[in-house]
Amino acid sequence: xxLRLQTSGSLRNRLxxxxxxxxxxxxxxxxxxxxxxxxxxxxxxxxxxxxxxxxSILDAASxxxxxxxxxxxxASFSMLSTPFDDRIFYAIYQDDRFLSGYPxxxxxxxxxxxxxxxxxxxxxxxxxxxxxxxTLIGSGKxxxxxxxxxxxxxxxxxxxxxxxxxxxxxxxxxxxxxxxLSFWATSTTIGQLKNLTNSITKRGPQDLRPFEKxxxxxxxxxxxxxxxxxxxxxxxxxxxxxxxxxAAHRVRTPLATVRSYAEAxxxxxxxxxxxxxxxxxMRAIDESSRxxxxxxxxxxxxxxxxxxxxxxxxxxxxxxxxxxxxTPIADMKDLELCLQSEDKVSYSGDPxxxxxxxxxxxxxxxxxxPNDGKVDIxxxxxxxxxxxxxxxxxxxPIEELNTLAARFKRGQNAEGTIGSGLGLTIAMDVARAxxxxxxxxxxxxxxxxxxxxx
Amino acid sequence: MKFLLVExxxxxxxxxxxxxxxxxxxxxxxxxxxxxxAFVETGEYDLILLDIMLPDGDxxxxxxxxxxxxxxxxVIVLTARSQxxxxxxxxxxxxxxxxxxxxxHAELEARCRAVLRRKAGKSRTNITSxxxxxxxxxGSMAVRGQSVTLRNRELRLLELLIxxxxxxxxxxxxxxxxxxxxxxxxxxAIEVYIGRLRKHLEPSDLxxxxxRGLGYRLDNDA
Lengths: 454, 222
Description:
- The complex is a heterodimer of chains A (454) and B (222).
- Helix content of chain A is 51%, strand content 20%.
- Chain A has helices spanning 11-59, 74-78, 154-201, 220-268, 272-306, 315-332, 351-367, 423-433, and strands at residues 61-64, 67-70, 88-94, 97-101, 115-122, 125-138, 141-152, 311-314, 336-341, 346-349, 374-380, 386-390, 437-442, 448-453.
- Chain A starts with 10 loop residues before the first helix and ends with a strand.
- In chain B, strand 10 and strand 11 form a beta hairpin.
- The longest helix of chain B has 15 residues, at 105-119.
- Chain B is built from eight helices and 13 strands.
- Chain B has a five-stranded parallel sheet with strand order 2-1-3-6-7, with helices on both faces.
- Classes of the chains: A alpha+beta (454), B alpha/beta (222).
- At the A-B interface, helix 4, helix 5, helix 6 and helix 7 of A face helix 1, helix 4, helix 5 and helix 7 of B.
């Protein structure tokens, strides 16, 4: 079961939005900067021509016979001609007296020798106006000439439009390129994370080796702490396995000593009541060692079932091996273990768990079988994969068929046999870990039957 | 039979040895892997009983070295750890079988017998007496040249009686040896096996005598 992790937005989206947003702002800035610069350059150009034009007009002014005479040269206006037929206005003043041109053209007040540029609205159009003045001295007279020259800005604005379009296109291209680049950068960055995620996801549940492939330096701290986490996990897992093994060792060795002494004593003791006492002692030892063993087995099985590691096994071979191993014990009771199976039944599961489950079932069957009895074991793959263990004993008490697999639960007719009540629980746990089930029943001819389906 | 017991727990080793002496077996005890190696090099054994956790190393290392050498003495591993974790490793390394501590001596004997039987024909312990030839390891018996199949309990009963001819065994004592302590074996069950064995022994000179109130005794009429 995987906990659904809470997410706080997507790193990829955040990165992409930041990068694309930045690119958009940059594109706009570029657009305005270019347009602004272009406007300035264009205006400067117009101003220069206007300046040259007004200079040539002023240069043409002279005092003839005491009168100011201005013969405006043709070139003064022709140099201002544009493909858009921009209109030209002018006004000439002598000492603030209007001489010629358009009297409504606004004129800036300036001091001698200075030039003044400004844009104003004239006759409904924006015009660029230059005002310049010159002081004429002649015939003992001193007079000041003011000239205002204005030009509409049709050509200029057309040029500016063109430049704006180019700048906009440039900005858009920049934006598109930057967006593509940021998508690429985002996915390569996230791709590294994805690679790491994939290679961790692909690992088996028992694979706690550190992650060793090279990673980008920014991810190194994450991978390092991941590795150290896995190391700690591995350590604590192996510690708990070791603990189970050690615990078993600590419990079983002294029990083995006591049991061996008790057996030896039983051979020597003659008095019936003493023999009875030793027998009771041995039963108690058997019971506690069996309980200890099964508790530890159960712990180990729970541990392994949580980290189920499936591998291909031949169930027939597995059960056969088990039957061979248990035959000496069966022989002691003159019991017959009879295995019926197909040639090969392949299954993908944890062989240690399955073997333990079946061992517990056969163990049970042998315990509850009468002398000279028979235990039938069958492995079949159709209609479903199952291992069946039937004995020739008294069978399960009918009212307890459904509750016997519960932990520490023993049948009412279990009096007089040694057991911890964990055998069926273990088998049930193993079946469930493999997605199967355990089914208890009684045979019509008598005897219990346990069906382990996988 | 001659056993080599490799076990570091002195108490347990002593207990196992004394229990096995009662059955007439010879047990030599090695407490460390180094001792065990020395014993195996100099002596000859029918079977090695090997503990896994030893002070100077893992019993499985010994097992591996033993299997690599040209000695084929069968090895039964005595394990105290979880059956699940140790099982596969020791069998893979070439142990012939294993028992989990604490073990029933009858079970250990049964396993020894099964292992020796599998190793086949190595038995030097045939007993010939009163017209029967008895091989306790193979579990086979021939009465006047006719081979007879014995069931396990008949075999053990015969073994007990034939090893101590003339000695009286009480029903209780026989029952303790034949049935495990968790069986509610009635003393009548012993009578059944005595009856079966008597039938097998009929053509021979051996006879099982019932001593009322005392038990049974094997006599040789010849």
